Amino acid sequence: MIGRLNHVAIATPDLEKSAAVYRDLLGAKVSPPLALPEHGVTTVFVELPNTKIELLEPLGDKSPIAKFLEKNPGGGMHHVCYEVDDIAAALDALKARGATVLGEPRIGAHGKPVLFLHPRDFVGTLVELEQA
Questions:
Q1: 93 close to 86: Cβ distance less than 8 angstroms
Q2: Nearest by Cα to 10 from 90, 125, 119, 101
Q3: Residues 9, 78: contact at Cβ < 8 Å?
Q4: What is the domain partition of the chain in residue ranges?
Q5: In whole angstroms, what is the distance from residue 13 CA to residue 98 CA?
Q6: Quick count: other Cβ atoms within 10 Å of Cβ 42?
Q7: 57-70: per-residue pLDDT in tens?
Q8: In CATH, which of 3.30.1200.10, 1.10.150.120, 1.10.357.10, 3.10.180.10 is domain 5-131?
Q9: Is the pTM higher than 0.85?
Q10: Active-site annotation, residues
Q11: What does the pLDDT look like over 12-66, one tens digit per residue?
């Protein structure tokens, strides 16, 4: 069902400072910030040869990233994202297999449908699926 690793997401209390670490210290290409109010985040992508790192900063107090940062004030890994060929088929298959799907598919930062899977079913890691 899952394909390649699309990205690893890291929550941060300071997006510009975190982006500078990747850009200035590691020499990586970093995208401009993109506010996603429907997801409650501002994000940048660090482009790597084989995948991406997504840096997430909360956009308001109600952001799920704000809640994550309350527990992890310095930031940390938030989720991993895998590609799937068909998000609707993946949703149906996962529900049939008993996985806890968080909400319904919606459009993510790359303009493609995404959905999230509960960490309790995936070795303590929040999983995002993105239609390839």
A1: no
A2: 125
A3: yes
A4: 5-131
A5: 34
A6: 19
A7: 999 999 999 999 99
A8: 3.10.180.10
A9: yes
A10: 128
A11: 999 999 999 999 999 999 999 999 999 999 999 999 999 999 999 999 999 999 9
